[in-house]
Design a protein that fits this description.
With 734 residues, this protein is mainly alpha-helical. The chain has four domains: 118 residues, no CATH class; 116 residues, no CATH class; 199 residues, no CATH class; 130 residues. It has a three-stranded antiparallel sheet, with no helix packed on it. It has a two-stranded antiparallel sheet with strand order 1-2. Strand 3 and strand 4 form a beta hairpin. The termini are far apart.
């Protein structure tokens, strides 16, 4: 027997040594292969834009495999792990090089080779610009994992107060950290719920032996970013070791107080330091670019090589990207907030409100908002571009007004006012449209973008925000309702009767409606308390989809199993926590009220008003300079000076036709739409954190209203200044 054991040991010892030797000789280090279950779990919660970046980075790593500096690898790994990305630092670095290279090649081909084939003249400007942009892109793309990690932290930190609230609330009646984390993960929203579920997953897959080890490994990632969250979680962990029940509950209460107080203090500093960056954003993104447009007609008139598409690249591509980068850097410094979410993501019954609904009898037709937005966009865009289309179909057609001949329908160089206003440049080519009619029609171009995007956002969000605001009214009253509910349970009433009594006492309020609905489900439909609240077809939460209310009712159901006294204490503590959270949230809103009010006035009035006035001035300058150029050419021709003589005088080199008002309007109007979009995103980020539903509603409202104001002001100022320009030119002509 002993011999058999010795042979067995020797046999497998030699086998193990052989395998270890082969393993050491391998040049490729082994890779962790996640299980199929974890892949499914991760794909379920991973944001789509991160999945796209992950795939492109992984592909770039296979093609180039550029390794970053060894000093940079730990920080890159930390950022990658924060976002749960399945890539390596080498993949991220390879993408930062490969994407700009492809960008330079593709855009260089489209900007130079394609125009060379079609027109016989390549645009070297686009080649140079593409190369510069591609080189500049390398730096931000190298920092993209850090940027994504910051964005992830911003969204996650917006849910941290609620996460601590749910954990503390659960652990007051059941001192189990694992169950409390699971409860919190079910009631908060991405990406923090993904982080908490990963903490639990690491224990299930035996990466860590205990939930405390897994949680400690996770919270250390927040060191330097959200220290109050770390402190709160440590207090929650320490409550597990308290022998006294009172001390355990006091420690849990302290955990919530810490994150609330520290959040207020950080928001106070953030609000104080926000004024400088916001002023820079306002000047760099609004004032200087728009006022600079006044000078551009002069620059363009004296520099014939500058075309409208050059200004388009600068104003509608490069500037918005720069402003967006500046705005994002401001938002990444925002402290933890009291987060909101898209209620349709958790409640399937509300997903239909993301569509444009048409009810015909008993039939409900759901039209995707994107179809409505695109339809409106194409109609308005075609109206805006109709001057170009009409001229292409009938080059000689125009509606003109001449003081001598009256109204005509053919091009007239001597006309006082032209609808299209095409002119001949020095080379005899038709250039335009310069006419006031084309300028007015061009106002439909920014309207097309504003209405297309605005209706899309508006139709996707208005109904859902209305439902959420109605539910928020319940949330504001809910603390008082919970106090009353807790008192009734403490008096010895069963939960079924307590619901009806609270409903009667709070009749006429939203809370009374909620408790009354629960009571009716119990008495008339014979449901249990859990069914009356959570039933997917008739439950009260269908009409009041608020996470705090849902979690409070779940805790009520669980704690009521331990007796009415435990349930009463749970509800009373929940009510107190909700009061504290709302008090801090209101104080946070007060801190940023001045900045938010200032930015909202910029969106609603200042930006469209300044841009509209500048557009009117620009149209007058362009009309005067273009007409002076034409009149100067005609004057020199009548005086008998030949083309060579004209060139020799250098007078014709002073004036060019410049850029038509039509294209200026296209550039300025589109820039106004872009800036309104950017400022709205910033305002929502400062005020509400990562609240995408509220952001869509604000975008739908601001894009439409502000662009309409810009259009009206531009129209009025453009007409007035064109009349003034016409009078000036008549005087010059005589």
């Amino acid at each position: 027997m002993a011999k058999d054991i010795a042979d067995f040991r020797r046999k497998y010892k030699s086998k193990i040594e052989k395998e270890l030797k082969e393993y050491k000789n391998k040049t490729v280090s082994p890779q962790y292969i996640p299980s199929r279950e974890y892949k499914q779990f991760r794909e379920e919660f991973m944001p789509r834009h991160l999945s796209l970046y992950e795939k492109m980075a992984a592909f770039s790593g296979k093609v180039l495999n550029i390794r970053p500096d060894e000093k940079e690898v730990p920080e890159l790994k930390k950022a990658i792990n924060t976002c749960h990305l399945s890539i390596t630092p080498a993949d991220a670095k390879s993408f930062a090089i490969m994407f700009p290279m492809l960008f330079i090649l593709i855009m260089g081909f489209l900007g130079y080779v394609v125009p060379l084939v079609l027109t016989g003249e390549g645009q070297f400007f686009f080649v140079l610009l593409t190369f510069l942009v591609g080189m500049i892109l390398i730096l931000p793309l190298s920092k993209l994992p850090y940027f994504l990690a910051s964005s992830w932290r911003l969204k996650a930190s917006n849910e941290m107060i609620l996460a601590v609230f749910y954990i503390v609330t659960y652990m007051r009646h059941t001192s189990n950290l694992e169950n409390a984390l699971d409860f919190a993960a079910k009631h908060i929203h991405p990406p923090l719920n993904l982080d908490l579920k990963k903490v639990l997953w690491n224990v299930e897959t035996e990466e860590f032996s205990t939930i405390k080890e897994s949680l400690d490994d996770y919270i250390k990632r927040w060191r330097g970013y959200n220290d109050e969250f770390i402190e709160s979680m440590h207090l929650i962990e320490s409550s597990l070791y308290e022998e006294s029940e009172d001390r355990r509950k006091n420690t849990l209460d302290k955990a919530l107080d810490v994150i609330l107080d520290e959040t207020y203090e950080k928001m106070l500093h953030y609000a104080h330091n926000l004024q400088g960056p916001m002023n820079m954003l306002h000047m760099f993104g609004i004032i200087l670019p728009i006022l600079g447009l006044i000078i551009l007609p002069l620059v363009v008139s004296f520099m014939e090589t500058v075309k409208w598409y050059h200004l388009f690249i600068i104003y509608n591509v490069l500037l918005p990207i720069s402003v967006y980068y500046l705005a994002k850097s401001i938002l990444t410094k925002r402290p933890t907030g009291y987060g909101e979410s898209d209620i349709s993501e958790k409640n399937k019954n509300l997903k239909k409100y993301k569509y444009f609904l048409i009810n015909i009898g008993d039939i409900e037709i759901k039209i995707p908002p994107v179809f409505v937005g695109l339809s409106v966009f194409f109609v308005l865009f075609l109206i805006g571009f109709s001057p170009i289309i009409v001229h292409a179909l009938n080059p000689g057609f125009d509606i003109v007004y001449n003081a001598e001949t009256g109204i005509g329908f053919n091009e007239d160089a001597d006309a006082k006012y032209s609808f299209l206003g095409y002119m001949e440049d020095a080379a005899g080519n038709k250039v335009g449209p310069f006419g006031i009619g084309a300028g007015i029609l061009s106002l439909f171009i920014p309207l097309s973008f504003a209405f297309g995007l605005g209706l899309y956002y508006k139709l996707r969000s208005d109904d859902l925000v209305g439902i959420r605001e109605r539910a928020k009214k319940l949330e504001k009253e809910f603390a008082s309702a919970l106090f009353q509910m807790g008192n009734r349970l403490a008096d010895g009433f069963p939960a079924e009767i307590a619901f009806s009594k609270v409903a009667a006492e709070m009749e006429g309020t939203v809370s009374g409606e909620f408790f009354g609905l629960v009571s009716r489900n119990i008495s008339k439909l014979g449901m249990s308390i859990e069914q009356a609240i959570f039933d997917p077809d008739h439950g009260a939460l269908i009409y009041y989809p608020v996470d705090i209310i849902e979690s409070s009712m779940k805790l009520l159901v669980e704690s009521s199993k331990k007796g009415p006294l435990i349930a009463s204490q749970s509800l009373t503590n929940i009510a107190r926590y909700i009061k504290n959270i709302h008090r801090v949230d209101e104080r946070l809103k007060d801190l940023i009220a001045d900045i938010v009010s200032s930015m909202q006035s910029q969106i609603a009035f200042l930006t469209p008003a300044i841009a509209g006035i500048v557009m009117g001035i620009t149209s007058m300058i362009s009309k005067i300079l273009g007409s002076l150029s034409t009149q100067m050419r005609n004057l020199l021709a009548e005086s008998g000076t030949g083309a060579e003589g004209v060139a020799g005088t250098g007078i014709m080199d002073m004036f060019g036709l410049g850029i038509p008002t039509f294209y200026f309007q296209f550039i300025v109007g589109l820039y106004v739409v872009e800036i309104i979009w950017l400022l709205t995103v910033v305002v929502n980020g400062i005020q509400n954190g990562s609240d995408e539903l509220k952001e869509r509603q604000m975008l739908g409202k601001n894009l439409i209203q502000s662009t309409i104001l810009y259009t009206i002001i531009s129209l009025i100022v453009m007409i007035i200044f064109n009349i003034v320009a016409g009078s000036i030119l008549v005087g010059v002509g005589t």
